[in-house]
Design brief:
- Helix content is 5%, strand content 54%.
- The chain is built from four helices and 37 strands.
- The chain starts with 13 loop residues before the first helix and ends with a strand.
- It has 725 residues and is mostly beta strands.
- This is TonB-dependent siderophore receptor.
Length: 725
Amino acid sequence: MSRPCFKRPFLKHPLLLALAYAGLASAHADGAGNALDAAGASAEAEQTQSTRPAPPAGAVMPVVTVTAAAVDAYSARSSKSASRLDLTLRETPQSVSVVTRALMDDFQLTTINDVLASTTGVTVEKVETSRTYFTARGFDIVNFQYDGVGLPQVFGNLQGDIDTALYERIDIVRGANGLMTSTGNPSATVNFIRKRPSAQTAASASVTLGSWNTRRVEGDVTAKLNESGSVTGRAVLVHQDGESYLDRYEPKRNVAYAVVDARLGDATVLTMGHTYEAGRSKGVMWGALPLYYTDGTPTDYPRSTNTAADWSRWDTTNHSTFAELSHNLGQGWRVLATANYLTEKSDSTLQYVYGTPDRTTGLGLLAYPSKYASDHTQSLVDMSVDGKFALGGREHDLSFGYNWSKSRLVDQSLYGRGIGDSLPGNTAFDGSFPLPPFDAAIDGSRYEDRRNTVFAAARFNLTDDWKLLAGVNHTRARGNGLAYGVSRAKSATKTTPYVGVVYDINRSLSAYASHTQIFNPQTETDASGATLDPIEGKTTEAGLKSALFDGRLNLSGAVFKTRQDNTAETAGLVGGKTIYRGINAESQGVELEASGELARGWQATAGVTSLSIHGDQGEKAKPYIPRTTLRVNTTYALPGLPALKVGGSLRWQSKSSVDQGGGITTRQSSYAVLGLMARYQFDRHLSLAVNLNNVTDKKYLTSLYWTQSYYAAPRNGSATLTWTY
């Protein structure tokens, strides 16, 4: 019996030529010619200025022009998410996607699942209603960061939802990210950039009504907290609840965020904040639907089918507290110290349905009730120094620092009476299985992981056209404890390099190449009882990047090769104990992306990824990952009616499959999901937006990551009324 467990060729592409042509054609082109998010951008500019020493009395102040990103922009001018250095996307020798506040608002991307499903090169594997895996370049994404600081996900997946209302933008760095992350996979790093306060008073409130009685209320306010404006604050509140297209499933969440900035002097800023997120979901799936009958033919249930019992629930409560101290040392140097403390609590009572149904009799499905609780804490401290230095008659950039983190997990599984009971007829799907006592057995985990990292990165301006980015990350990772009777002891130390080069072909087009590594210690043991060596990941990529229209439009094209060696795979039993072996896999492919303003009033993000994934012997691996994906999001403000904005989104992916064993394979054909939106701005304060999802009512499975799955939502919509000040 298998059940989901809580513990647990470089391609030539003609579009690259199009990218190069676009950059060359723009070499002599002139840049072409937008409120709470603008207030956030202003706050960032104010914070930067506040750390500068005051001018001497009587000094003549130069004119300073601060240019903030347009409030409806779909691209960003710079990012620190790949290197800790504040570089433009064109200067960064790695693939970076930026999901802006405007994009999230236009298409109602209210959870991280929504965001990543709309991001180039990322697949969202929603295996259950409350658990999701993410992949990029053929490997699992396990690194989530907040303002550049974070740890790998303890389970390798996301439990519950992360609401996006708290974030100004979300950066996704694809490939290994050894400079920014101590350990992990060579897939991608997701960096959440928190909203910050402004001294300029601004506020917004919105109400959303959607299909299946979904209701969402959201508020956001920022203002100065003292007369001088040296102390500013911001607060965000969210409440969402409703029903679902799935029988008996009722998700609900509450979110609160508060942050305060205090200028302690001309050169010092202290920021403190706290986030509270609570999910309370009823009728939650543990596992999903069987995908084939005993005769090998595929099942085809109604989209509303749910295996959860009436009493099933999954509650999550997360707290995150952070403090950040920034001090300007002068001469372009700054020191930044950040401390984070996170707690994640989970409490659930669930019903897992397993087995293979008989098409004729309906027999073959069995019950597996369980009660589960976990308490996960993370403590993180990050200190860095960055600035500029002169060498060889040129100015260069440098960042270095230290990172310490500790993660602790305690969880417990209580198994209910009735495990293995038959579920005849429709009883597997009607929620009628009675709530049992959970005293059949007990198991659990108690373990701790620790990381210590020192890092350094420098960008050398070799010539006017050549830039070299080089860095190193030295990490010591240790762990101890037990997880369901298996040791979690591990110890590994490794130094991972980063090197990238950028060549400016002209003022709009650059070529780049980079190589970066990452590692991840393991606890699994081989036949001899020795712990497997750490997983090692490597990414090599090269490509072209272009910044057009004064940086409002970013284009990129890349070819990449990503390899992950020594990943633990079950190799059998020795003395009743599972043993493992290390396997290798490699992906290679091409990515093309455009983001920003294509013309006045026309914003878009569009990206296509095509890849292959092979194992040790050249065999195709991970067939559940679609080999080609397309993501498009675009909006247009009508010239004759500027108050009206219309847009659409498209997600397309190629076929995928999963081997069920016994010669049975579940296949999902390629499919496309279309979304539409429209927003009308009645005046400077009030707007109404309408979003329609899955317009063609496509029926498809959410994932083939596991050997079970369920169906995605049918056609649905929402209307959002927003007031701003």
